[in-house]
Here is the input.
Amino acid sequence: MTIIFTEADFDELWQEGLQTGEIACKFNDFEYMETWQHALKKGSIQILELRPGLCLQIGNYETPITWGDEAQHSESFPLTLAFIVTGGCREQIYGIKEDNCEKAGENYLFFLPGTREIEVHPTGLLQNIRIRVESHLLRTLTTGQENSLPDLLKPFMEADSVPLFHQDIGKMTSAMHLAVRQIMHCPYQGMMRRVYLEAKTLELIALQFSQLVETEQPTRYQYVSLKRDECDRIYQAREILINNLHNPPSLITLAQQVGLNERKLKQGFRHVFGNTVFGYLHDYQMQQAQRLLLEEKMTVAGVAARVGYASPTAFCAAFRRKFGINPKAYQIAGRISLG
Here is the structure.
């Protein structure tokens, strides 16, 4: 059974984590970072106030168990753009979307002030970018160009009465993927870091709004999703895969294990994770390999074995095809950059 934390529960857990050292926080003039080494989460969340009305959040962490948290959004909750690189989540947004899946490789736009939401985080790696844009900044950025805005955003040109929404914009474009990678691997520090990240954040805003304008049709707002039970079974299939990296089941066996037919399993994986079943498994193996090469004192052969490769040679070839660099060179370069 999935544990759901209330806001009070989560705040108490966070305070305990600070006391035990499982959660650490640090600040500078414009950036806040939380680092977790906790049973719920391992990794980091960065929040950067780039300018008044523009906030960037970078999530890069792993969840060892499935858990959820409940939140009541404030009345000032701003317009938010989300870009899901790896992982995803399930959401229950009361009064808006009672059964929603955010999926890897997709981008979203939502405005949810005053709403109540439960967000469930499945096990595995999550990498995402969220951009918060205050209404006053949106109006400033589009002064004199209001007609070029997507229809969904035109109500923001008025001070009041903006309808609530949670919109799946579609697949992230190659330009979006590049901008997200550049944000997550920013090469600068200090003032130049802030300038660089603000420029890339504005680029992502422009790319998403452009995609929305190009695809904006009445049918675009009709969200198509799996039934809750089917969505749960797709996530169950994913957990079976990642818990059996060394000997993954065949497609038909996996379908039988979660009570779906093979066609529904393949469709569901593409719908939820934006990938084929074994394409997802391969990407997960490579993502875990990246983490292990940088965070653990392991040889390349050791990493290969950990992520399910019997042959280090085959692992090196797969890693090079995926990232354009061999794993040893990636490990050396990454450790140098981390100091």
Summary: The CA atoms of residues 32 and 47 lie 5 Å apart.
